[in-house]
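Open question from group meeting: does this chain pack into something compact, or does most of it stay loose? Before anyone orders reagents, we agreed to write out a predicted structure and look at it together. Recording both the input and the output here so the notebook holds the full record.
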Amino acid sequence: MLHHIVLFRFHDHLDAAAIAAVQADFAALVPATGVVADFRHGPDCSPEGLAQGFSHGWLLQFAGVAERDAYLTHPAHQQFVAMVQPLLAAALVFDFVD
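Structure tokens returned:
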């Protein structure tokens, strides 16, 4: 199983509606790409205060590297990335296999 972690730090000027739209668009990638085995997301709720401004996170799971690579190159994912990049102050992506 390949775990794909995505964290977003949105620009300060974005309102809750804009962030909710991003969340919906991100979730729409699951059926659009057809390669995501599991999808979870939510806002940061850690009491540790170590999020460094990253407010929302996603965990996508793929059967393996080939499925992850198909997701990354899928036109729906590429469109999402182009749409969301201007809304972000930063993004962090981290993958691992277990």
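Observations to bring back to the group:
The CA atoms of residues 41 and 58 lie 4 Å apart.
The beta strands are 2-10, 38-43, 56-62, 88-97.
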